[in-house]
Design a protein that fits this description.
The protein is α/β, with parallel strands linked by helices. It contains 16 helices and 13 strands.
Length: about 400
């Protein structure tokens, strides 16, 4: 099949949740199909990865865009009564390229990654006749409109009002997508159920979960000498707690701030030398400031995240705003690490609380779970082993991406 794949971020390097998913979709589908990739890049340095993506794609078009200008465009759309998100990601130059390809190529399918990118499909000039109309698949991943509602509940005036408006507008846009596209893909059963509760008339919903490369994220990487040791850890450190993620993302920022202020002090009362490592790119100034406190290290971008998973006595996921499947949870579990998470961060993963992970939503419950694992090394190791076994059995990229291929082929 000839597939046009449209993404809101360049799918490489696969170092963020959305990029991990989009890259694996492209990688897997490229084995059987011809893919043309059109995407945006909010980091100009990532354009150098075009050559890597050309190994999987017939054609690759990457359009860099400035986030400041994108925000202005988004606000302008918002003032016109439209969705801020759609305005943020819409660029005429990318539309022009998609139009050119759609005229010259008879696509069998168009896959949109992230609901904001549907606008490019809606605005295609000279669309193909009905009898040659491509199959349209929207990979929603999560219900993005609901994130705006979460932000509205946490934000202060006037942002709570703006976010509330965006929630309602973007939900209407998601409904429009579902009506127009042939298939709507979600990352978990709970996300699909949420969308159905918001839009009972929704049709053709499909669940395709994330996966993890459990050979790459292996507890035996040190034995294979695949990675170098972590340099940030000082000698004579106490228990090591680790969090990973893009540190300019609102949910991650909120999570590490909450953990550092409300949970970590309770741990340090019993273990004063506890070290909390925050490993991830583009740390927000509020996150950077945490490094001024004793026992907190903010690394910034790291080339290989695996040594940080491996260094952890306990991997913590203190997210209060996240939705869908958290890749960091799957990766840590695959590394055979004991994980303590909020129920929100575990929402899209069918792991068992008490068996595969420990769950705590209040500062007291979260800290008690961590202390339990720190104090009982045998229990910590056993939980890690069960976690890896669970991931290997249930979260294979190959098995999950085969569902996407079946979705394409079933409509031939």
């Amino acid at each position: 099949m000839k597939i046009l794949y449209i993404a809101h971020r360049i799918p490489y390097p696969p170092n963020k949740g959305d990029k991990i998913r989009s890259f694996n979709e492209i990688k897997y589908l490229s084995e059987k199909h011809s893919i043309d990739l059109a995407c945006l890049a909010d980091n100009p340095e990532e354009i150098k990865y075009k050559q890597t993506l050309q190994q999987y794609c017939n054609r690759v078009f990457i359009l860099p865009f400035g986030t400041t200008k994108a925000k202005i465009k988004g606000i302008f759309c918002f003032m016109q009564g439209k969705s801020l998100s759609v305005g943020y990601f819409y660029l005429k130059e990318l539309q022009k390229k998609i139009d050119q390809w759609s005229i010259s190529t008879k696509y069998d399918a168009i896959i949109c990654f992230s609901s904001s990118m549907a606008e490019y499909v809606f605005r295609i000039s000279n669309p193909q006749p009905a009898k040659h109309k491509p199959l349209l698949i929207m990979d929603f991943c999560d219900v993005d409109s609901d994130k705006w509602q979460q932000y509205a509940q946490k934000a202060k005036f006037p942002f709570n009002i703006i976010y509330s408006f965006e929630y309602h507008r973007f939900l209407e846009y998601e409904k429009k997508i579902n009506r127009a596209f042939n298939h709507s893909v979600f990352v978990s059963e709970k996300e699909a159920e949420l969308f159905l509760s918001l839009f009972p008339q929704a049709k053709n919903l499909c669940i395709i979960s994330n996966g993890v490369d459990y050979n790459y994220f292996s507890p035996h990487i040190a034995e294979k000498r695949a990675v170098s040791p972590v340099e940030h850890i000082p000698e004579n450190s106490g228990p090591i707690l680790v969090f990973t993620g893009a540190m300019d993302y609102h949910a991650n920022i909120d999570g590490v701030l909450w953990f550092s202020e409300s949970v970590l002090p309770k741990i340090k009362k019993e273990f004063p030398k506890t070290l909390f490592i925050i490993a991830g790119s583009n740390p927000h100034p509020k996150v950077q400031k945490l490094s001024e406190k004793g026992g907190i290290i903010v690394t910034g971008f790291v080339k290989d995240i695996r040594p940080y998973y491996q260094a952890a006595d306990v991997f913590v996921v203190p997210l209060r705003l996240a939705r869908g499947v958290q890749n960091k949870v799957l990766e840590a579990m695959s590394m055979e690490k004991a994980v303590v998470t909020t129920s929100t961060a575990l929402d899209g993963i069918s792991a068992n609380n008490g068996g595969h992970v420990l769950v705590g939503d209040s500062p007291v419950d979260f800290s008690n779970a961590i202390l339990r694992l720190i104090n009982k090394k045998t229990a910590r190791n056993q939980q890690g082993k069960r976690a890896r076994e669970f991931v290997v059995a249930n979260y294979s990229w190959e098995a999950n991406m085969n569902l996407l291929d079946n979705l394409l082929c079933s409509s031939d």
